[in-house]
Amino acid sequence: MSLTTTLSYVLPHRLLSSMARRLAYSSNPRIARWLIDTVTEKFGVNLAEAANPDPRSYATFNQFFTRALKPGARVPSSDPRTLVMPADGRISQLGAIEDGRIFQAKGQSFTAAELLGDAADAEVFRHGLFATVYLSPKDYHRVHMPWTGTLRETVHVPGRLFSVGPAAVNKVPGLFARNERLVCHFDTDFGPMVSVMVGALLVSGVETVWGGEEIPAYGDTITRKDYRGKGITLERFAEMARFNYGSTVIVLLPPGVAEFAPHLDAEHAVQLGQALATLK
After folding, report:
1. Three-state DSSP class for 184?
2. Assuming Cys at both sites, which of 113, 145, 185, 257 could form a disulfide with 122, CB separation 3.0 to 4.6 Å?
3. What residues are paired with 251 via a beta bridge?
4. Res 11: pLDDT
5. What CA–CA distances, in Å, run from 217 to 10, 78, 174, 240?
6. Torsion sign, CA atoms 31, 182, 247, 57
7. What torsion, rounded to 10 degrees, do the Cα atoms 234, 238, 242, 245 define?
8. Where are the beta strands (DSSP E) in 123-180?
9. Which helix (H) or strand (E) holds 65?
């Protein structure tokens, strides 16, 4: 087990994330410049794709990290029957949900009920499909809609803030169902669809386009927000939410509605808008 993974078991994860948040939102030019330069150089951020490519023009590190892309930098798959990739990053895992269990890594899995924080919500996905996409610090950190959907409900599930890097994914049992996360339920023309925004160590928060900041505030109880009847419909490829640091998004689909693009497998590098799956 890596040192980072080992330390994440014992370190005060919420305190560390709160401290990271203060740094990320600091308007001190020295702090912002140091953080932006460090991440840009260490991870090879491609600023040429950014709507604003000047790293010195961002007032805070968080503004830089949640930067928009220039028009046309990402486009949706031209096949109107495809569900599109929700984010830049790489495939951690994808495949069938086996009797309610979701594969994490060799020897590691968790249940859809654990992930969603509700057994009844998970039942429709018992034999469905899942795709887990990991966003590294260099990636574009806005998450988009795989398919047009109307927001039904969000569920904020409190939890740990383990790292979601490959080492932790391989070693921490049920990691994605243990980390703090925001579960977003959508109704689509093929049935229910879920996008789960999974928090991670040093992730300062999750924001949605309909509700603003959703994580933090940290809490100890599950919080549900009912959006039925509010008419919040987001089109395929539209921005849905954003992370304030690298993390993971998990998409769940019900059985029998789609097939994953045949070239996709674990560790496959992906970009927003590419084909994720095709409707049957």
Report:
1. strand
2. 113
3. 131, 195
4. 62
5. 22, 39, 23, 19
6. negative
7. 150
8. 129-134, 142-144, 149-157
9. helix 61-65
Query: Who's near 261: CB < 8 A, 6+ residues apart?
Result: 82, 274, 275, 276, 277, 278
200 by DSSP, 3-state: which?
Answer: coil
How big is the chain, counted in residues? 280
Tokens for 268? 């496959």
Phi/psi zone of residue 53: left (φ > 0), alpha (ψ -120 to 50 degrees), beta? alpha
CA atoms lying within 13 Å on the CB side of residue 5: 13
pLDDT at 217: 62
Sign, CA torsion 208/136/18/111: positive
d(CA 189, CA 209): 21
Asked if 210 contacts 151 with a C-beta cutoff of 8 angstroms, the reply is yes
The arithmetic mean of pLDDT across residues 90-117, rounded, is 95
Give the catalytic positions in this structure.
88, 144, 247
For residue 218, what pLDDT is reported? Answer: 62
Helix (H, G, I), strand (E, B) or coil at 222: coil
Q: Is the dihedral of CA 19, 182, 141, 131 positive or negative?
A: positive
The torsion defined by the Cα of 203, 64, 22 and 197, in degrees rounded to 10, comes to: -20
What would you measure as the largest C-alpha separation in the chain, in angstroms?
Answer: 53
Q: Comparing C-alpha atoms, which of 28, 203, 202, 172 is closest to residue 110?
A: 172
User: Closest by alpha carbon to 70, among 37, 46, 48?
Assistant: 48
Judge whether 200 and 163 are in contact, CB under 8 Å. Answer: yes
Which residue has 């930098």 as its token pair?
Answer: 73
pLDDT at position 5 is 55
State the pTM of this model. 0.92
